[in-house]
Design a protein that fits this description.
Helix content is 48%, strand content 20%. By secondary structure, the protein is of the alpha+beta class. It has one domain.
Length: 90
């Protein structure tokens, strides 16, 4: 099974995303990577965010980020399963 990729920007850590990153790093179910820059400078400056399997997940308060990432992962999994079912039915 391919692990979901969660990417964090080192420049965004001033929002407290380092704590969220550490929580995910402790779980072997996720591939967690920190980059010096993810190229989303406007988002990075304004609010806590991460890339979840390539999609931006941003929140106003870092306390929400962990749960919103989990919600995004669940939604992406549900979307993949729905697509697989659709393709199986063809």
């Amino acid at each position: 099974m391919i692990k979901p990729m969660i990417e964090f920007c080192a420049s965004n850590m001033h929002h407290g995303t380092d704590e969220v990153m550490r929580r995910f790093e402790q779980d072997d179910d996720y591939e967690v990577t920190e980059y010096g820059c993810l190229g989303n400078c406007g988002e990075c400056y304004l609010k806590p965010y991460a890339l979840v399997d390539g999609s931006i997940v941003a929140v106003d308060d870092v306390e929400e980020l962990y749960q919103v990432i989990l919600d995004s992962l669940k939604q992406q999994q549900a979307d993949r399963e729905a697509l697989d079912k659709l393709l199986d039915d063809l």
